[in-house]
Amino acid sequence: MQFLWRFVTIPVLLVAIGTPQSFAQSSSRQMIAKDRTGQYAVLKDMIDPRQSGKVPHGRESQNLGTCGDMELELGLTYDTDATTVALARIAGHYFKWENELPKLGYPRDIVLPLIAAVEKKLLAHVVLKGGNDFQDALSREAIVLARQLNAANAKLNPRAKKVYFQDECGGGGIVVEFKVPKDARLFYTSVFLANLCKTQGYDPSDRSACDQWTELFNGDNKMLAGSFNYVGEWRDGSKRAGRFNADQVRRTKTGAVFQLER
């Protein structure tokens, strides 16, 4: 009977203690995966020009796409979690359209409901599928938006510039080659993603909790723009942390090179 009492009360004790919050949401990426709608609001607030002072943009104002420039400026690379990238791209495109379309001659009262509808559909896609097939969804919705705007253009303001969507149109950024000593390891993350971790309540220097860091290996080449944090760690325990801007990386005859040094 005593054995039975212990067997029954152990599960009750575990339920009473509960699962620690740090275990339930133990990292930046896990928090995003578990609450995509809530984390979209966080990312949108970070990208909001009223907060950042910078409007996401593309290469040509009449193109509804960013040509990858906005993503590069935020430090979003192929190494970044696909769901994080998708959510940031929704917010970035929303603010690009909100800022640029009125300047092209489209009334705000026409623009805002249309782009809000696109935002809602794209967010629903990410909530359901994460970053999977996001480019297809963005292209599909942006092409429809362009048609709607051009139709409104013909009726309300023929002088407004016609718009289109093309996202694979080349962009800025430079290719940076990384040189890492044999006895060292190198990690990097964009300043934007480090700030995301901080906003989420994680220490940006804790790579387990702020799992937006990527390890770089000797000879790696990355297309980059904007600012990045880095940490170098040597076998003897020594470390070096700092920040670099892709546009200011040392140039050589073969291109831009970042050399990790003590």
Bulk shape: globular
Gyration radius, to the nearest Å? 23 Å
Mean pLDDT: 88
What is the element string, with H for helices and E for strands? HHHHHHHHHEEHEEEEEE
* Tally of alpha and pi helices: 10
Distance between the termini: 66 Å
For the biggest sheet, the summary is: 4 strands, mixed
How many distinct beta strands? 8
Biggest sheet: strand arrangement: 4-1-8-7
Q: Which percent range describes the beta-strand content?
A: 15-25%
Number of domains: 2
Fraction of residues in helix: 40-55%
Q: Uncertain regions: pLDDT < 50 for 5+ in a row? A: 1-24
Describe the protein in words.
The protein is of the alpha+beta class. It is built from ten helices and eight strands. Strand 5 and strand 6 (about 240-245) form a beta hairpin.
Which features characterize this protein?
262 residues, alpha+beta, 2 domains, 4-stranded mixed sheet, 4-stranded antiparallel sheet, 47% helix, globular, disordered N terminus
Describe this structure in a few short sentences.
47% of the residues lie in helices and 16% in strands. It has helices at residues 2-17, 21-24, 28-34, 36-47, 49-52, 69-73, 82-100, 108-129, 134-156, 191-200; strands spanning 174-179, 184-190, 214-216, 221-224, 227-234, 239-245, 251-252, 255-259. Strand 7 (251-252) and strand 8 (255-259) form a beta hairpin.
Describe the secondary structure blueprint for this structure.
Layout: H1 2-17, H2 21-24, H3 28-34, H4 36-47, H5 49-52, H6 69-73, H7 82-100, H8 108-129, H9 134-156, E1 174-179, E2 184-190, H10 191-200, E3 214-216, E4 221-224, E5 227-234, E6 239-245, E7 251-252, E8 255-259
Parallel strand pairs: 1-8
Antiparallel strand pairs: 1-4, 2-3, 2-5, 5-6, 7-8
